Amino acid sequence: MTLGEKIEQAISESGESYEAVAAYTGISVATLRRLTKKDSADTADLIKISEILKKPLGYFLSELVSNSGQQQIANQVKKNRQQISVGGENLDELRHQLELCQVERESLTKQLADKEQIIELLRSK
Length: 125
Known about the structure:
By secondary structure, the protein is mostly helical. 71% of the residues lie in helices and 3% in strands. It folds into two domains: 3-79, lambda repressor-like DNA-binding domains (434 Repressor (Amino-terminal Domain)), CATH 1.10.260.40; 89-124. The chain has seven helices and two strands; from the N terminus they run H-H-H-H-H-H-E-E-H. A hairpin with a 2-residue loop joins strand 1 (85-86) and strand 2 (89-90). The model is unreliable at 81-87 (pLDDT under 50).
């Protein structure tokens, strides 16, 4: 099965429309339909397609790359994980922001508990 056939099959199985997949991927419907006729695709497009169709990237690559080739791709992705970005921010930046949010949450929780204690003291007087 070609890459294009796998994309076409995945779209069909997902229930997503070509329009929705194309919009999420950032390409036109015509370009998406052309991809279903080819045996190659831009990596960024393929990643977006796999995301919206909820298929692992390996699903599309399984017949194109040997097992050792898949392992090499997986190792390269793992090696470069800091370069993978979400909305323009890399994984390390997102982890740092999460840590800051957790610290702020703990602080706010303590402040709330302190205020509740003050309210109880004032009510008891």
